[in-house]
Amino acid sequence: MATQDPSPRPGPVSYRGRSSLPMASSNTDDREVPQFEPFQLMPRGPPPLKEFLDIWDVNNLNDINKKQHHTDLYANENLIVRRAQEFQIRITFDRAYNPLQDQFLLEFVIGRYPQVSKGTYIPIRIEEERPQSWRGRILETKDNMVTVGITATPDCIVGRFRVYVAVITPYGIRRTQRDPSSDVYILFNPWSEADSVYLDDEAELGECILNETGVLYHGEVKDISVRPWSYGQFEYGVLDACLFVMDKASMPLINRGDAVKVARMASAMMNSRDDDGVLVGNWSGDYTYGVAPTAWTGSVEILLNYANSGMPVCYAQCWVYAAVFNTFLRCLGIPARVVTNFYSAHDNNGNLKTDLIVDEDGQVDKERTKDSIWNYHCWNECYMARPDLPQGFGGWQVVDATPQETSDGLYRCGPASVYAIKHGQVCYPFDAPFVFAEVNSDVVFYKRNKNGTLEQVKVDKTHVGRLVLTKEIGSDKSRDITSQYKFPEGTEEERTVLEKAEEFGCSRVQSTLPPADVELRITVQDVMVGNDFQLGLEFKNLSELKRTASVYISGNIVYYTGVTSSEFKFKTQKVKLEPFEYKKVTLDVSSKEYLSKLVEQANLNFIITGRISETGQIISAMQVVALHTPKLSVKVSGSSKVSGESFVTVEFTNPFKYNLENVSLRVEGPGLMKAKSKHYSVIPPNSSLTWTEPFSPWRPGPAWLIASLDCAALRQVYGHVEVNIQSSEGGL
């Protein structure tokens, strides 16, 4: 005899008993609006409607509207407009429109349960002014055609609206049938002063909204490298993919007109840590079940894969998160740019300290040193007003999609006001203390005594947040925006800011240690992967007495996050200095020592510490050596015209003495060609490969083709070429 399950499974959770209708949280979830909606009970049979207007055609005037609304680059057949700016719709009736006896309205509907109070159902009666509602007016009447102008409110929902034209009769409303091709996308409008994302700088808008390509900065502060990236925010399917991200997050439709809430939601949804977001992070070096972060060339493939499968895409690291997030923001109309912070502290408790522990002889205690400093870290800035903050804290806001720490229970960061970070006002949301620490932490050296106590021996207040870069407007060059995050080191303004931050809970090192009378500096030339090189150690005795330094030289293979993979070189040396003497010691580093131990991004980190015998003072210096990789050659041939046949050729020569195995190549370009890839099982030493692919551009104007080469033994190999595509008629 079967026994009853003592703990039956609960059924699906519903909204019943909590609200009359479920919260609308999907742009694609719709319910058909009836073609005829009676005002009251009707007798059997259709009502006599022949004497009233009949709608023959609705024309969204895409060409006119898209040009005026800066949306003509979107590869989308539907009308795409921006809120707080008038757009036109032309309606053709069966006869001439008579305003004295004819009444019609336009209805904009989004979601499954549209309501006027929620902004999800917007009925627009022409020439009827209602406060805080969309406006409609007749622009022109000609024969049977009426052209109306529609202006969405500056805070309306951003998304895809279904559009109906309805004629009002004494019997009821007769409206057009649902036609997906007549749907209208409403976006944020940075060109309108009424919109919260308004940016009064046409050149900045050209860069941070309209530019589909860019460069991302990485490497080391004294040796900066760039990687090109295709944002592709106007490519086919990307806009719908961005709306899908909000649907996947179950973001209520009523919140989708708030730029602050949209940016904060997307900060969480770009990573998959807790919400099945877009990208899976991976810093392990093993990318067997996905694409290596260094192999991606653009955002389009990632977003389309996510929208089509509904599953997170593998894999990402900080610059991939930032680049895809940049595409999302620009696509929806929020000005955005990718920012790189060199020597970025990961400080999860806001104490503004990164601790390095040495023993009594000055050697780094690796077992007890747990903190790390990222060689660089990429995040985003988006431009918007902050009505939730006091006056003056709007403008550029930090948002970071890389999952580092949770914020209100989810892995996300921001938006945090850049102005608030610079002025130490870290009490304001969101996550300002975390960002403040990333650019302001001290590097504190502690000496661990034999009894286990820690003693501060050196504080470096200038190492972290050394340089903050973004792309220059209209150029491939970098723009130094460090001054937007912090005042110059040692100034009165900086001291005031730190005091202000401490008032809000950010503690910093208070003690002032006497400077050592021996200075130590590291120098190194640019180094290619696989080359031998020399490290220069420069000592300077600032005292009038002799000094003897016992020096420990530790060379480590590190990830760009500052996490050590292995130590490949260790050496001790005694350096004797006469009064006021300068001495340079060179250290030879052979490729055999590091090559077999390299991890991706090819970073070597040298930590030099030592003790002055006469005074007991600790000296130290750190130097990251970013090993350069060979470049790809990318060339274009063919017609260079819209719809014409062109060819892109990618060339690479293996400069190493060993095989490159399981090599993947990728190439793509917005407006030119979709992402294509090719696999090579092996590239022998000194051998070359040539890969040619045809493409047919579909949009005129300047554009980039971006290529990458990636394998386990060689990461971060890129190349790009700029082409100028002519229209099929011959002009631009």
UniProtKB/TrEMBL annotation:
<dbReference type="InterPro" id="IPR001102">
    <property type="entry name" value="Transglutaminase_N"/>
</dbReference>
<feature type="active site">
    <location>
        <position position="318"/>
    </location>
</feature>
<feature type="binding site">
    <location>
        <position position="442"/>
    </location>
    <ligand>
        <name>Ca(2+)</name>
    </ligand>
</feature>
<dbReference type="Pfam" id="PF00927">
    <property type="entry name" value="Transglut_C"/>
</dbReference>
<dbReference type="InterPro" id="IPR013783">
    <property type="entry name" value="Ig-like_fold"/>
</dbReference>
<dbReference type="GO" id="GO:0003810">
    <property type="term" value="F:protein-glutamine gamma-glutamyltransferase activity"/>
</dbReference>
<feature type="binding site">
    <location>
        <position position="494"/>
    </location>
    <ligand>
        <name>Ca(2+)</name>
    </ligand>
</feature>
<protein>
    <recommendedName>
        <fullName>protein-glutamine gamma-glutamyltransferase</fullName>
        <ecNumber>2.3.2.13</ecNumber>
    </recommendedName>
</protein>
<dbReference type="InterPro" id="IPR036238">
    <property type="entry name" value="Transglutaminase_C_sf"/>
</dbReference>
<feature type="active site">
    <location>
        <position position="377"/>
    </location>
</feature>
<comment type="similarity">
    <text>Belongs to the transglutaminase superfamily. Transglutaminase family.</text>
</comment>
<keyword id="KW-0479">Metal-binding</keyword>
<feature type="domain" description="Transglutaminase-like">
    <location>
        <begin position="310"/>
        <end position="403"/>
    </location>
</feature>
<dbReference type="GO" id="GO:0072378">
    <property type="term" value="P:blood coagulation, fibrin clot formation"/>
</dbReference>
<dbReference type="InterPro" id="IPR002931">
    <property type="entry name" value="Transglutaminase-like"/>
</dbReference>
<keyword id="KW-0808">Transferase</keyword>
<dbReference type="InterPro" id="IPR014756">
    <property type="entry name" value="Ig_E-set"/>
</dbReference>
<dbReference type="GO" id="GO:0046872">
    <property type="term" value="F:metal ion binding"/>
</dbReference>
<feature type="binding site">
    <location>
        <position position="440"/>
    </location>
    <ligand>
        <name>Ca(2+)</name>
    </ligand>
</feature>
<feature type="binding site">
    <location>
        <position position="489"/>
    </location>
    <ligand>
        <name>Ca(2+)</name>
    </ligand>
</feature>
<dbReference type="Pfam" id="PF01841">
    <property type="entry name" value="Transglut_core"/>
</dbReference>
<feature type="active site">
    <location>
        <position position="400"/>
    </location>
</feature>
<dbReference type="Pfam" id="PF00868">
    <property type="entry name" value="Transglut_N"/>
</dbReference>
<keyword id="KW-0106">Calcium</keyword>
<feature type="region of interest" description="Disordered">
    <location>
        <begin position="1"/>
        <end position="32"/>
    </location>
</feature>
<dbReference type="InterPro" id="IPR023608">
    <property type="entry name" value="Transglutaminase_animal"/>
</dbReference>
<dbReference type="InterPro" id="IPR050779">
    <property type="entry name" value="Transglutaminase"/>
</dbReference>
<keyword id="KW-0012">Acyltransferase</keyword>
<dbReference type="InterPro" id="IPR038765">
    <property type="entry name" value="Papain-like_cys_pep_sf"/>
</dbReference>
<dbReference type="InterPro" id="IPR036985">
    <property type="entry name" value="Transglutaminase-like_sf"/>
</dbReference>
<dbReference type="GO" id="GO:0007399">
    <property type="term" value="P:nervous system development"/>
</dbReference>
<dbReference type="InterPro" id="IPR008958">
    <property type="entry name" value="Transglutaminase_C"/>
</dbReference>
